[in-house]
Automatic annotation (TrEMBL):
Key words, A-Z: 4Fe-4S, Amino-acid biosynthesis, Branched-chain amino acid biosynthesis, Iron, Iron-sulfur, Leucine biosynthesis, Lyase, Metal-binding
Cofactor: [4Fe-4S] cluster
CDD domains cross-referenced by the UniProt entry: IPMI, IPMI_Swivel
Domain Aconitase A/isopropylmalate dehydratase small subunit swivel per the UniProt entry, residue ranges: 539-661
SUPFAM superfamilies given in the database record: Aconitase iron-sulfur domain, LeuD/IlvD-like
InterPro entries found in the cross-reference section: 3-IsopropMal_deHydase_lsu, 3-IsopropMal_deHydase_ssu, 3-IsopropMal_deHydtase_ssu/lsu, Acnase/IPM_dHydase_lsu_aba_1/3, Acoase/IPM_deHydtase_lsu_aba, Aconitase/3IPM_dehydase_swvl, Aconitase_4Fe-4S_BS, Aconitase_4Fe-4S_dom
Pfam families assigned to the protein according to its UniProt record, in alphabetical order: Aconitase (PF00330), Aconitase_C (PF00694)
Family: Belongs to the aconitase/IPM isomerase family.
Top-tier EC class: lyase
Identification of the protein by name: 3-isopropylmalate dehydratase
Pathway the protein contributes to: Amino-acid biosynthesis; L-leucine biosynthesis; L-leucine from 3-methyl-2-oxobutanoate: step 2/4
Catalytic activity: (2R,3S)-3-isopropylmalate = (2S)-2-isopropylmalate
Length: 759
């Protein structure tokens, strides 16, 4: 079978092989999805699609929904209904729409009056919904969190959410195997957050592109499940499709007796299977990175990318010492945005806000670790007067747990603001936001411009460092709170070594582009491709010719493409105005800036040419693709793309075209002269007046779908027989995966009846 590894296999290979429903000869697989988590931001358009097509949710028993992004984190003492509790109209509409959808489709749902409500990536593991060996998806990039259980868990866009709801499968191509080994002892004061920030600093935010990372080595083996979740959570910040840790005794102990974990004899059979889930001794990894635990200091970010890390004992980097002009320019921009001077000691940076929360760090262990610092500071310790410090537990159950341990009392006595569960100031879709210019030490995962509020400045840190910062009012080395000899320990502890990412890699093949693929993948026989008679609602992409806008930015994240305030829509359209909003409009005056898309003729652009790699990284919001499309941009050309963004564009009849960095530069120069550029997907070439055409090759299946305007759901529904027979095998081999509703009743599979062919 294409894509199947013969011989020793990695954990990823094993999970992959156990989920392939069908695979075509060029390796595109239909993968069965065991668990689907749903939240209010990325699901309304998906449910609307189902309703319009008259399709049911295929596996309500494998689907769990909650409300987390939009909700206020204020007291729910007087909570009556979403309608009265969520006052901001767009947030309220999204939360109410989810409530209606879960009723209409018969889904398990934790609403605001339910103690089990919380951040989607917190509640899945907490309930035992997440299990080893499963495939798990959610319309959310931090689905990678669930890989901590030895599962293949990844974020998807809204069109794919609809696909999973309708078919319980996804069309996927296998990624690369990457292993990150951290061996040795972590120094005191260094925790899982420092480990993952350090890893991202080493491999960069594009380091994991196209790969699934397995975290191996003594450091991860010794970590609790909470710590493993924090690490896997931020795999997406390392550019990876997913991250995972092989399940072991720690995993089993965490899961035993969780409400949705298997019980009795079924548990024994599940555990026997889970014990087989580890990489074979001689399994081959495409990329391997080795890091010594002793080199990891308590770590903090200084810039606007999670890779901008430095030891807390370090200084703000000096762009003038950077030889690479694009790195220097981006560091200068970041320092200007962050309001920092080069060479300022990190510990001299004052703060106005501290945020302890998010799907990275809002679990019980995170709260204990923060409370430990507050306790160590003594009974009179107080949050610094210049700081507002919020603590937002990840779920109602975590909040309850923490209160039972008396952690809330420790925090409240010191002046922390103890709140209700939700995403909160991690992205500020609710009222918890930074004001322009405010600086925050945050335990979340993204420090992008405007992430926590327009003009807000974020430094990513561990929960312990956040607590220390709250007490001193500035970024602080947490080791100062560890005993009488603490100052010496800081002096003797690990310091950041400036090393190149490549020094850590045994082999680095660089991000895969479509054109890197073996040539057999580019010539699938026409018989393997679906017929293309009557197209679906997806626009065809054959030739796009027009003005191309040049953009010289690396790691363009989807928060930059479309900020959070535009995610509150229930529709897929009307987002043109939100495109690159913070770049196109002055935050004070609201006037248009001189950003490239505001200037003629680029305000008419149909193509965007970005010279920086890793376009579309970060959040899974399909709104980024919708906004580009609404603006009129049908094709983005860049040296490489983040996976979820790439899928999202293709689901909308748009072409993400990876070309070499030289070709991108060359095309951007052409674009700067204002000439029209022509992207011909049938001939697979880019033409521009007078100069030789640039040939490219893309996945034949995707080319076929784009040229004919085919939609994935219509295609997959024709595989009904294969899906049903996979489900029979699954029930026989892995019966514990047939989910049961919270009332203990098995929910029947709902199969979409195919009338006449849709295309
Ligand atoms: C809303 C959702 C699409 C988004 C994500 O995918 O990450 C959000 O959770 C975020 O953290 O930006
Ligand atoms: S990253 Fe933040 S906004 Fe996204 S799911 Fe996690 S807590 Fe919510």
């Amino acid at each position: 079978m294409p894509g199947t590894v013969t011989g020793p296999r990695t954990l990823y290979d094993k999970i992959w092989d156990d989920h392939v429903v069908d695979v075509n000869e060029d390796g595109l697989a239909l993968l069965y999805i065991d668990r689907h988590l749903v939240h209010e931001v990325t699901s309304p358009q998906a449910f609307e699609g189902l309703k319009n097509a008259g399709r049911p949710v295929r596996r309500p028993d494998c689907t769990l929904a909650t409300v987390d992004h939009n909700i206020p984190t204020t007291s729910r003492k007087n909570y009556k209904s979403v309608d009265t509790f969520v006052t901001e109209p767009d947030s309220r509409a999204q939360a109410m729409q989810l409530e209606e959808n879960v009723k209409d489709f018969g889904l398990s749902y934790f609403g605001l009056s339910d103690k089990r409500q919380g951040i989607v990536h917190i509640i899945g593991p907490e309930q035992g919904f997440t299990l080893p060996g499963i495939t798990c998806v959610c319309g959310d990039s931090h689905t990678s969190t669930h890989g901590a259980f030895g599962s293949l868990a990844f974020g998807i866009g809204t069109s794919e959410v609809e696909h999973v709801l309708a078919t319980q499968t996804l069309l996927q191509r296998k990624g690369k195997n990457m292993r990150i080994i951290v061996d040795g002892e972590l120094a005191e004061g260094v925790g899982s957050k420092d480990v993952i920030l350090h890893i991202i600093g080493v491999i960069g935010t594009a380091g994991g592109t196209g790969s699934v990372i397995e975290y191996a080595g003594s450091v991860f083996r010794n970590m609790s499940m909470e710590a493993r979740m924090s690490v896997c959570n931020m795999s997406i910040e390392a550019g990876a499709r997913a991250g995972m840790v092989a399940p072991d005794e720690i995993t089993f102990a965490y899961l035993k007796n969780r409400p949705l974990a298997p019980k009795g004899e079924e548990w024994d059979r599940a555990e026997a299977y889970w014990r087989t889930l580890k990489s074979d001794e001689d399994a081959k990894f495409d990329i391997e990175v080795n890091i010594d635990a002793a080199d990891i200091p308590p770590t903090v970010t200084w810039g606007n990318s999670p890779q901008d890390v430095v030891a807390i004992t370090g200084k703000v980097p000096d762009p003038s010492t950077m030889t690479d002009p694009s790195k220097r320019a981006s560091a200068e921009r970041a320092l200007a945005y962050m309001g920092l001077q080069a060479n300022t000691p990190m510990e001299d940076i004052p703060l106005q806000k501290v945020f302890i929360g998010s799907c990275t760090n809002s679990r019980i262990e995170d709260l204990r670790s923060a409370a430990r610092i507050v306790r160590a500071a003594g009974p009179d310790a107080k949050v610094a007067p210049n700081v507002h410090a919020m603590i937002v537990p990840g779920s109602g159950l975590i909040k309850q747990h923490a209160e039972a341990e008396g952690l809330d009392a420790v925090f409240k006595r010191a002046g922390f603001d103890w709140r209700e569960a939700g995403c909160s100031m991690c992205l500020g879709m609710n009222p918890d936001q930074l004001a322009p210019g405010e600086r925050c030490a945050s335990t979340s995962n993204r420090n992008f411009e405007g992430r926590q509020g327009a003009g807000g400045r974020t430094h990513l840190v561990s929960p312990a460092m956040a607590a220390a910062a709250a007490l001193t009012g500035k970024l602080t080395d947490v080791r100062k709170y560890f005993g009488a000899d603490a100052e010496e320990k800081v002096a003797a502890g690990p310091k950041l070594k400036l090393t190149s990412a490549l020094d850590f890699m045994t082999e680095f093949t660089g991000p895969e582009t479509e054109s890197d693929r073996p040539s057999h993948a580019q010539t699938a026989s026409p018989s393997s491709l679906p017929p293309a008679s009557s197209p679906s609602g997806v626009a065809k992409f054959i030739i796009v010719k027009g003005i191309a806008a040049p953009l010289h930015v690396e790691n363009v994240d989807t928060d930059m493409i479309i900020p959070k305030q535009f995610l509150k829509t229930l529709k897929r359209t009307g987002l043109a105005n939100g495109l690159f909003f913070a770049k196109r409009f002055d935050s004070k005056t609201g006037e248009k800036t001189d950003f490239i898309l505001n200037k003629a003729p680029y305000d008419q652009a149909k193509i965007l040419i970005c010279t920086g790699k890793n376009f579309g990284c970060g959040s899974s919001r399909e709104h980024a693709a919708w906004a580009l499309n609404d603006f009129g941009i049908r094709c983005v050309i860049a040296p490489s793309f983040a996976e979820i963004f790439r899928n999202n564009t293709m689901q909308n009849g748009m072409l993400p075209l990876p070309l070499s960095a030289e070709d991108c530069k060359d095309l951007a120069e052409d674009a700067e002269t204002g000439v029209e550029i022509e992207v011909d997907l049938e001939k697979q070439e880019v033409r521009r007046g007078g100069k030789p055409a640039i040939a490219f090759s893309i996945d034949p299946f995707r080319q076929h779908c784009l040229v004919n305007g085919l939609d994935d759901i219509g295609l997959t529904l024709q595989k009904e027989e294969a899906i049903t027979s996979f489900e029979q095998k699954r029930s026989a081999l892995w019966s514990w995966l047939d989910g049961f509703g919270y009332h203990g009743q098995k929910i029947p599979v709902a199969i979409t009846k195919l009338g006449k062919m849709e295309w």
